[in-house]
Prior knowledge:
about 280 residues, 4-stranded parallel β-sheet, flat, alpha/beta
Amino acid sequence: MSRVTMAEHAGFCYGVKRAVEMAEQAAASGKRCVMLGSLIHNDSVVRHLESMGLTSVSRPEEVPEGAAVIIRSHGEPRAVHEALRARGEILDATCPNVSRIHRIVAEAEQAGRQPVIIGTPNHPEITAIAGWCAHPVVLENAEALEKWLEKEPENRGKPLTLVSQTTAARKSWDLCVEKAKKECTNLKVFDTICSATCKRQEAAQALAAQSDAMIVIGDRKSSNTRRLAELCAALCPQVLWIERAEDLEPSNLYGKASIGITAGASTPGWIIKEVYDKMSDEIM
């Protein structure tokens, strides 16, 4: 018999839950509405919304005339907002924590400061944040920050405003802050990592440290799920990253006395329950 334990904090965060509920309410109202891109990084949820009649478009120009547009939880650049507003109604499902970063970088640049955004350069959240200022600097980690400062030493004296991707790993962000505080003489730091992200990562790490195996549930496109898998792998001998219950082969976990389960911010409760129930039926 194996002991299977759910992490204390796992699955949908507030911003993702809010975005999905907004989309479901729009679909249920019968309003003609489309999603701009994937509302969240979870194909199962997107398919669920499509089954309710919500279709997706890739660009503002593709929005049908008269249709409202749902902006995804990761947000969009200022130019996209303006283009959509010119076409019609916007249902802004951007996570409020992300919207706050948009305001921070826009106001910083307006005040003559240089926004420095720490995060995965091609991630949609980072693309959106960078799109709220004219001259953003996007750096992935402390190593990239160090190279930027070494390449252009005058950057150390510039008025810099440092923000982070909401789903960044706490350790990586702390290293960036430490580096910037040591070398930069006119620095403002805004800790914009979502508190739910910190709680989810801390709970996953605590569980991984006392488990023989960990199951991490989340879409392969989800950066916060990838970080959960990486954090767990540093503490647990076996980590399985799956998207849904059908991806799980319980026989791979036979003989493990303790198994932990965590899930990324874009993973709905019904997928987590399916995985837990499958584990319960097979090996508990």
